[in-house]
Amino acid sequence: MASKLSFSLVSPEREVFSGLVDQVDAPGVEGDFGVLADHAPFMTALREGVVTVMDGSSRRQFLVEGGFADVTPAGLTILAERATEVAAV
Fold first, then answer.
1. Cβ-based neighbour number of residue 68 at 10 Å
2. Of 31, 55, 67, 78, which has the fewest Cβ atoms less than 10 A away?
3. φ, ψ for residue 37 (rounded to 5)?
4. pLDDT tens, residue by residue, 8-30
C-alpha cells in the first residue's frame, strides 16, 4: 500500500480539512505544485486559486485566497487567509 500524506487546511476561523490523502495540488505564487507523501520539505506563499485534495477516486476542491503552504516530513499544512469548499467529486 502506498504511503498517505497528512494534510491540514486551516483558515483563521477554523480547520477546513484534515486527513490522510494521496495528493494535494495547490496554487503557489511561483506556479502550481503537487505534494505526495514523503515530499521534500519546502515552504511557499499561495496565490488565490483552487486547492485540489485527492484520495483514491475522491476529489475535493477548496478556493483559497492567499496564505502559505508548509511541507515537512510530517506532511502538508496550508494556512489560508480564506478557504471555502467549492466542489466534491
1. 15
2. 31
3. -55, 145
4. 999 999 999 999 999 999 999 99
